[in-house]
Specification:
It contains 5 helices and 5 strands. Helices cover about 35% and strands about 15% of the residues. The protein binds FE2/S2 (inorganic) cluster (2 copies).
């Protein structure tokens, strides 16, 4: 039997009937066409599916769609203030060359932003700890860490 849920994604309200076994990742990618959030391992190991739920990062592959009832989800599509502008973390990832294939990037940016929302000038160690649930197979991590540190400085200004 389907369950009726009412929730917000990136400020937009949705009312949907969902099967109880479907994940938030299924809902975002397949029903709402928000494919910025990736699906990698499906087991909570890679972080490619990271989104914010009520302001805290979660793995959308491990979260059932029914769990977001009356809650608010933010995906990478919701970070930019408009179609013309990028969020500072998105700009800085580009400037610092912190993207290669880009598969990990939405999850990295969500985890980085969650850290920066609490502390604008984290140490390198704090940044690496914040990214410990996000895997990248391309960049070697240093540029991603630099991009997050630089974003914090920009957000502080
Ligand atoms: S797809 Fe969710 S952690 Fe890998
Ligand atoms: S840029 Fe390719 S997985 Fe991170």
């Amino acid at each position: 039997m389907k369950h009726h849920i009412r929730f917000k994604v990136n400020g937009d309200q949705y009312d949907l009937a969902v099967d109880p076994w479907r994940t938030l990742n299924d809902l975002l990618r397949e029903d709402l066409n928000l494919t910025g959030t990736k699906f990698g391992c499906g087991t909570g190991d890679c972080g490619a599916c990271t989104v914010m739920l009520d302001g805290k990062t979660i793995n959308s592959c491990l979260t059932l769609a029914v769990e977001v009832d009356r809650r608010e989800v933010t995906t990478v599509e919701g970070l930019a203030p408009s179609g013309e502008e990028l969020h500072p973390i998105q700009e800085t990832f580009i400037e610092k060359g912190a993207i290669q294939c880009g598969f990990c990037t939405p999850g990295m940016e969500m985890s980085g932003l969650f850290l920066l929302n609490g502390k604008k000038t984290p140490t390198e160690s704090e940044i690496r700890t914040a990214l410990s649930g996000n895997l990248c197979r391309c960049t070697g991590y240093n540029k991603i860490v630099d991009a997050i540190a630089e974003t914090g400085k920009k957000m502080k200004k």
